[in-house]
Every structure is written in C-alpha cells, then in structure tokens.
Amino acid sequence: xxxxxxxxxxxxxxxxxxxxxxxxxxxxxxxxxxxxxxxxxxxxxxxxxxxxxxxxxxxxxxxxxxxxxxxxxxxxxxxxxxxxxxxxxxxxxxxxxxxxxxxxxxxxxxxxxxxxxxxxxxxxxxxxxxxxxxxxxxxxxxxxxxxxxxxxxxxxxxxxxxxxxxxxxx
Length: 170
Hints:
The protein is an alpha+beta fold and 170 residues long. It is built from six helices and five strands, in the order αβααααββββα.
C-alpha cells in the first residue's frame, strides 16, 4: 500500500489543463507584479473583528487615540491580501504543492483605509527537492506596496512546485 505522502506530485495535486507554470518556470531574478487591491475601512474592521480584535483594527474612535492615530489593518490581514493577489495572478495557474513556510515577515508601515495595495514578488532562489525528484522549491521576496510606493509588508516565502517533466511525462 502506498501512503499519500509517498505518491508522486502529479498524483497528489489537483492540476488541470489551466496549469502552465511548473518549478522549471521560476528563475532567480524574475519579478512578478501581482495586481492591486483598494482596502476600505469596513474591510479592515471586518477582518479585525473576526481575527485580530485589537482596538486600532476595529474601533475608529479608539484607533484615533492610539499610537497609530487612526484605523490600521492587522498585519495578518496585509499578509492575507498579498496571498490573495499571489493566488489570483500566478499561483492559480501553477503546479503548487503548498508552502513549507514563511521567513522574515515584516510589517514595515501600517496599512490604512483607502490604501491602494500592490503585490509583487522576486524569485531569490530555486532548487530541486533533495528527496523528491518530482518537485522543487522556490523562494521569493514578497512585498506589498501602497499608492505612494511605500513598502508596507515584506516577507520571504517558500513555495513547493511540481516539476514539468514529472507532471507531463516528459
């Protein structure tokens, strides 16, 4: 009997015909613009109430009296927005096998209502898996920037991707 974690990547992932990005397609130095999102006060408050109910995320009056002098998004909200931009622009058409983790997550400047946030990533390393020849690892420097080109969030993210040769039989 074969355990699920011993199956080749092509058998584990729900890849369909829309997949056109495999590990081999990610080259060090590539930069990808991921799109943008205009964040509203209502969205900040909604996320804050559900997941991070600190006063400066959920109560505009108390936020005004906080060290931030106004409503700000949770850092987790910012990271989630970057992830959504990543999914919508790139990950949805890739042979993604998930992520082994995130490093160096930095919330550099608070995200505020009406910020137009743009996501980007730069490939900083790529290597085949040492133990699984059907997949490879990609490391990216991720950023979320506002309409004034101020970097709000920066993190280093790892991605695990199926290899084209295994998935396509070539």
